[in-house]
């Protein structure tokens, strides 16, 4: 029988479909490309794939602006292709998780088009958040709310009769109007959307900006109290992490439980992890929430210890599944990020603008491999991002005219945005777009991608790809790693060590000097070669200690 708790320890691999593999030569990755590469993912050893949006979309935000929640973008394939991906993945033992984007639709969604064509106060407008402006002629936005992509979170429309009209709320690009989650039709539509995909066989859902759906819409709208702090920590903000949001996920849990096994879900809440974050992962709600604290943490022993302690304690309190993340389509790749100079402000490197150059250095790759082995040895469910198994660096120098992320436009070209982590994957050493597809790639790939390609690393001992394959194999086979035991162990100064059951130890060298291994330990895997029997700085080893 299917294990209903499979997701608690699953290794999930994020596919950003446009950048994964292109089967039809239009320069955009697609479901056919994914289908062709499923055997690669099976061999890598992942348990599940999280597919970023593949739905019809004008691509104002890389697909996170959806114009039809129950179809496939024609550039990426058809529903039949999707069904084939699910069937083939399942045959290979891989689960499929799809992305649900409930905070906002595309401005091209029929609902928003209907709202624009309907009068103020109409039921069509009520599916979104339309308000009159304030001040002279209503020319001032209804509140101080700001967009994540820069500027006010309000856009003024022209009414059907040609006069300047109401404003609508958009927490992201203006092409992404926010839905009104107090509207019963909106609530019903998303529950049916979950069923639509669950009926097609998907195993779970990743919920985009899960903490923003329930807004305080009481009149007059309340300003956000503190605009320099991106998100509040105590539930008092009018937009984020409000108590009422949990009723939505309690309703969704009932939908997930209509299926056997129940569908899993993971919340994305882009906020500092605190006790409130873990509430989304309660078994009565989504079950998992991304813990981004590892991703946000600079390199350092004390930071890593604090992050791991807090995550384990926080999740234990709420009863949800633990998660770990080092990279995603939203942040500079960790092979570059982890080499940034000490003291770099995370808010600066999250979306770098060149003031803090993102580096492609041996140090970055060493640390990325070490951090990955540390993460894969922790209890819970790690989320990998496509290309990290190749050690791909952030691409910091995409020509300006090629950049597509809305962050780039919305910040008046001062922040380059997230395209540097979204460059299409290299599959072969040479050739058009390094084997991504026959028609080039929608973002230019750097020359270094050839030697980082799958072909260049396949079967090469010590390559990053082979390290991932080996680690994932050990994770499946080793009894300690399969269990839930976790205990800190003694380690030399500025190093970190933890045991997973008797006989398994993970040792991370965060000091600047080589570190001795415990007596009698046998190395199961190491992020790089030992030097004179010592673990070099910026390396991790898994040890058999029994
Ligand atoms: O991201 C949510 C989010 O809060 C991001 O704006 C995040 O702060 C930023 O990317 C950090 O650099 C999700 C998706 O992952 C992202 O790709 C979308 O752009 C966003 O939602 C809107 O749907």
Summarize the structure.
The chain has 546 residues and is an alpha/beta fold. The chain is built from 16 helices and 16 strands.
Give descriptors for this structure.
546 residues, five-stranded antiparallel β-sheet, 16 strands, binds 1-O-alpha-D-glucopyranosyl-D-fructose, alpha/beta
Describe this structure in words.
The protein is 27% helix and 13% strand. α1 packs parallel to α2 (79-91). The radius of gyration is 23 Å and the shape is globular. The protein has helices spanning 31-44, 79-91, 110-117, 123-126, 184-199, 245-256, 275-278, 293-296, 301-318, 334-337, 346-350, 362-377, 406-410, 454-457, 464-477, 479-482; strands at 12-15, 48-51, 95-100, 130-131, 154-158, 164-169, 204-207, 264-267, 287-289, 323-325, 381-385, 487-488, 495-499, 504-509, 522-526, 539-544. The protein starts with 11 loop residues before the first strand and ends with a strand. The protein is built from 16 helices and 16 strands. It is an alpha/beta fold. The structure holds 1-O-alpha-D-glucopyranosyl-D-fructose. 1-O-alpha-D-glucopyranosyl-D-fructose binds at residues 61, 64, 101, 148, 172, 208-209, 270, 329-331, 350-351, 418.
In helices, the fraction of residues equals: 25-40%
- Mean pLDDT comes to 94
Low-confidence stretches: none
What are the distinct ligands in this entry? 1-O-alpha-D-glucopyranosyl-D-fructose
| Structural class assignment | alpha/beta
Total of helices:
16
* Rg on CA atoms, Å: 23 Å
Walk across the major sheet and give the strand order. Answer: 9-8-7-3-2-1-11-10
Terminal Cα separation, in Å? 34 Å
Oligomer: single chain
Overall, the morphology is: globular
Total number of beta strands: 16
* Main sheet: strands, sense, barrel: 8 strands, parallel
Proportion of residues in extended strands: 5-15%
Family: Belongs to the glycosyl hydrolase 13 family.
Protein name: Glycosidase
InterPro entries: GH (IPR017853), GH13_cat_dom (IPR006047), O16G_dom_2 (IPR045857)
Keywords: Glycoprotein, Glycosidase, Hydrolase
């Amino acid at each position: 029988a299917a294990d209903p708790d499979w997701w608690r320890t699953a290794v999930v691999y994020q596919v950003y479909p446009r950048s994964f593999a292109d089967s039809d030569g239009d320069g955009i990755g697609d479901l056919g490309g994914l289908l062709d590469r499923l055997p690669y993912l099976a061999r890598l050893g992942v348990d599940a794939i999280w597919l970023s949006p593949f739905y019809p979309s004008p691509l104002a935000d890389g697909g996170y602006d959806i114009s039809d929640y129950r179809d496939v973008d024609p550039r990426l394939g058809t529903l039949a292709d999707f069904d084939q991906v699910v069937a083939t993945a399942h045959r290979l033992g891989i689960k499929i998780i799809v992305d649900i984007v409930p905070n906002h639709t595309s401005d091209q969604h029929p609902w928003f088009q209907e709202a624009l064509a309907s009068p103020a106060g109409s039921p069509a407008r009520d599916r979104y958040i339309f308000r009159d402006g304030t001040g002279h002629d209503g020319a001032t936005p209804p509140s101080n709310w700001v967009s994540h992509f820069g500027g006010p979170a309000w856009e003024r429309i022209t009414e059907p009769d040609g006069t300047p009209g109401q404003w609508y709320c958009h927490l992201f690009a203006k092409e992404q109007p926010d839905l009104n989650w107090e509207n019963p039709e909106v609530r019903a539509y998303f529950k049916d959307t979950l069923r639509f995909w669950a009926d097609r066989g998907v195993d779970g859902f990743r919920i985009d900006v899960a903490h923003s759906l329930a807004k305080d819409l009481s009149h007059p709208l309340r300003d956000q109290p503190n605009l320099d702090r991106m998100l509040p920590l105590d539930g008092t903000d009018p937009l984020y992490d409000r108590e009422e949001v949990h009723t939505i996920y309690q309703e969704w849990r009932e939908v997930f439980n209509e299926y056997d096994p129940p569908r899993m879900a993971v919340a994305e809440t882009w906020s500092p992890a605190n006790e409130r974050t873990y509430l989304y992962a309660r078994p009565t709600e989504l079950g998992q929430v991304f813990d981004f604290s590892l991703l946000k943490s600079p390199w350092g022993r004390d930071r890593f210890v604090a992050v791991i302690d807090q995550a384990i304690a926080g999740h234990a309190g709420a009863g949800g599944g633990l998660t770990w993340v080092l990279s995603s389509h939203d942040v500079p790749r960790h092979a570059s990020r982890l080499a940034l100079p000490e003291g770099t402000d995370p808010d600066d490197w999250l979306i770098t603008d060149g003031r803090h150059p993102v580096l492609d250095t041996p140090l970055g790759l060493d640390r990325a491999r070490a951090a990955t082995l540390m993460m894969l040895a922790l209890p819970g469910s790690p989320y990998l991002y496509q290309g990290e198994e190749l050690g791909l660096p952030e691409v910091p120098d995409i020509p300006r005219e090629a950049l597509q992320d809305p962050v780039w436009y919305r910040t008046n070209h001062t922040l380059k945005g997230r395209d540097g982590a979204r460059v299409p994957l290299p599959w072969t050493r040479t050739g058009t777009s390094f084997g991504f597809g026959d028609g080039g790639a929608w973002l230019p790939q750097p020359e270094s991608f050839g030697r980082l390609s799958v072909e260049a690393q396949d079967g090469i001992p010590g390559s990053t790809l082979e390290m991932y394959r080996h680690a994932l194999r050990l994770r499946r086979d080793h009894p300690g790693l399969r269990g839930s035991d976790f205990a800190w162990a003694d380690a030399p100064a500025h190093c970190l060590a933890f045991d997973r059951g008797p006989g398994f130890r993970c040792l991370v060298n965060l000091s600047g000097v080589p570190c001795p291994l415990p007596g009698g330990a046998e190395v199961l895997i190491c992020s790089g070669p030992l030097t004179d029997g010592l673990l070099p700085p910026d390396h991790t080893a898994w040890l058999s200690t029994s």
